[in-house]
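Q: Please design a sequence for this.
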């Protein structure tokens, strides 16, 4: 579905598909002011009625070049049956330069024996606008949403009332659901025949334990797919105006977890090598360990004047940016009030923005 707030007054939109599934889409688009044309061999009765009443136009054939070219948005709302053997609608739209999206997810997992499936949706850093369209479409099609706290949780308000939401947030030093239990919930819900969306912060495969969830589903024979997300590693600095690379300044960036301090036996990061590698260092999960990280980088030869920017609650109304240097971090510790979640940028670019 199109995001709830969209205004499409007078915008010509082509919807491909005629089932009840397409109906909700067509009605939503009409409510948003769009002029909808629907293309399908057969129309569900209520769609037929809309066409009869002249509220929706009916197009003959989606492969007609004008039909796509004259639209400003194309929605593929076909069921898998309607799609079988039919044209590749997204490709037709792409060739005509018209944006398109599929409402049932072009690459959605085909349902398993129970009919259930799991899709891991990367939710971005928490601001609702930074969830991808595919992620949003999956969310709205879910029977169950298993969510984290750093995901764009305000969008859960858009869900129909009968959708079950399970909160498995891990709060640092607070309540948390063990990973094994999260895996078990995903498998249990999918085996019950439900369409499960696992809504995660950022991208599911960046420190998100997403691949463990994929493996658990595969082991259990549950179909599982992934919708990529906007990772906080890049987007949170960017929301503070900080580029992680900048021509003539720095040619790359390294993203590391600061969860284990450099002197912690669990740490596998060669911080001394990082100090020399000459790329921007982006630290996730490293608010408390930041002074220790700064000390290690200084000891390995990084200059005390090296700029540091710590961006807390990126993209949320409570967002805050604290600027410092490696030297000051070691001497004075963290700026007051900085607490997780935060992304820290270390390097020349941290002085920009
Ligand atoms: N998979 C996520 C990262 C999970 S680890 C991603 O790709 O973004 C959790 C860490 O992400 C937090 O400790 C913090 O470092 C960072 N983070 C996520 N959302 C954030 C936000 N809105 N603002 C600041 N940091 C954020």
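A: Design:
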């Amino acid at each position: 579905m199109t995001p709830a707030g969209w205004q499409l007054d007078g915008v010509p939109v082509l919807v491909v598909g005629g089932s009840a599934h397409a109906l909700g889409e067509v009605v939503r688009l009409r409510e948003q002011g769009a002029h909808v044309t629907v293309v399908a061999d057969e129309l569900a009765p209520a769609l037929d009625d809309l066409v009869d009443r002249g509220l929706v136009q009916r197009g003959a054939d989606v492969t007609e070049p004008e039909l796509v070219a004259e639209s400003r948005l194309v929605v593929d709302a076909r069921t898998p049956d309607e799609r079988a053997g039919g044209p590749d609608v997204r490709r037709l739209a792409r060739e005509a330069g018209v944006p398109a999206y599929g409402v049932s997810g072009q690459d959605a997992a085909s349902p398993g024996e129970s009919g259930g499936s799991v899709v891991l949706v990367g939710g971005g850093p928490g601001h609702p606008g930074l969830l991808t369209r595919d992620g949003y479409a999956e969310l709205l099609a879910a029977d169950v949403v298993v969510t984290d706290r750093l995901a764009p949780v305000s969008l859960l308000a858009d869900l129909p009332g009968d959708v079950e939401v399970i909160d498995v947030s891990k709060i640092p030093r607070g309540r948390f659901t063990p990973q094994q239990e999260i895996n078990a919930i995903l498998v249990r819900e999918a085996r019950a025949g439900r369409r499960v969306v696992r809504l995660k912060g950022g991208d599911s495969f960046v420190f998100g334990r997403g691949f463990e969830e994929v493996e658990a589903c595969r082991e259990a024979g549950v179909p599982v797919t992934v919708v990529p997300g906007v990772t906080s590693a890049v987007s949170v600095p960017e929301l503070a105006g900080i580029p992680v690379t900048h021509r003539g300044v720095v040619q790359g960036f390294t993203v590391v977890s600061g969860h284990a301090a450099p002197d912690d036996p669990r740490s596998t990061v060669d911080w001394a090598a990082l100090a020399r590698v000459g790329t921007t260092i982006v630290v996730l999960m490293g608010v408390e360990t930041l002074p220790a990280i700064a000390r290690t980088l200084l000891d390995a030869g990084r200059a005390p004047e090296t700029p540091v920017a710590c961006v807390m609650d990126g993209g949320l109304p409570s967002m805050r940016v604290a600027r410092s240097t490696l030297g000051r971090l070691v001497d004075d510790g963290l700026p007051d009030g900085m607490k997780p979640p935060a992304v820290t940028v270390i390097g020349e670019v941290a002085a920009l923005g």
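Q: Thanks. Anything notable?
A: The chain has twelve helices and 15 strands. The pocket of S-adenosyl-L-homocysteine is lined by residues 125-126, 150, 201-203, 206-208, 231-233, 236, 284-285, 311-316, 340-343 (CB under 6 Å).
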